[in-house]
Structure formats: C-alpha cells, structure tokens
Amino acid sequence: MTDATHSAVATSATVTTAYATPTRAGRVARAVAPDNTASMTTQVESATVTTEIDRDTTGGLQSTVDDYVVNLSVAEGVFDAIDTAADAAAVDVVDDAADADTESDIAPTEDSTAAETTTDETT
C-alpha cells in the first residue's frame, strides 16, 4: 500500500508596474491595497509598484493576479480621469483670466446712461 498524500505546490507571481512619478505609484498602491488578500504583499520603490502574490494552486494564483490587474486598471483609469479634469480646469482658469482682460460679460445698451454727466439745476 502506498501513501497517497499530496502536498500542495505553492505558486507565485510578481506584478511590477512603473509610473511617471513616485506620487502616482504611491497613489495607485494605496488605491488597490484594500482589495489585497493575505497572500499579497505590495511595495513602492520610487515610481514602481511591485506586488508579490503567493497561492497554493495555479488556479488560485490566476484568479488573484487577474483581480489585481483589473484593480490596477481601474485605479489608473480613475487617476487619469482626475488628471484630465484638473488639466481642463487649469486651462479654463487661464482662459477665463485671458477673457477678463479682453472683454466684458456686460454689453452696453443704446439707452445706457451710466456714462452721461448729470447736473443739478435746482438752485
């Protein structure tokens, strides 16, 4: 009789993502951290996020990596949208400042008397 004990072979993956700035890397790492499981460790070094994932099965590893990559994509999309909105707002502020120097929002009318001089002739 043979002993049919099977031992699980641990599987692991490393996901490394590089960003334009260390600030962006830190923000993305913090954004995905709440969904990390106990089998995951994430580190930020400079502008790079590295996540180690260890699972007992290949199927479990595949699921965890897939979930993590989706979470990264969502976080990156959110931060890209924030940056785009901030850039657009900055352009609007610059455009508004330029408009204020060249034109008025109040158009004069023909019967406007604001600029006419008045005198009091009741003496």
Structural description of this entry:
By secondary structure, the chain is α+β, with helices and mostly antiparallel strands. It is 46% helix and 18% strand. The chain contains two helices and three strands; from the N terminus they run βαββα. Strands 1-3-2 form a three-stranded antiparallel beta sheet. α1 packs across α2. The radius of gyration is 31 Å and the shape is elongated. It starts with 10 loop residues before the first strand and ends in a 21-residue tail after the last helix. The mean pLDDT is 81.
SS elements, strand count: 3
Secondary structural class: alpha+beta
The oligomeric state of the chains shown is single chain
Amount of beta strand: 15-25%
Largest sheet: 3 strands, antiparallel
Report the C-alpha radius of gyration, rounded.
31 Å
Calculate the mean pLDDT score and round it.
Answer: 81
Helix content: 40-55%
Secondary-structure element pattern, one letter each: EHEEH
Shape category: elongated
Q: Runs with pLDDT <50, length 5+?
A: none
Straight-line N-to-C gap: 130 Å
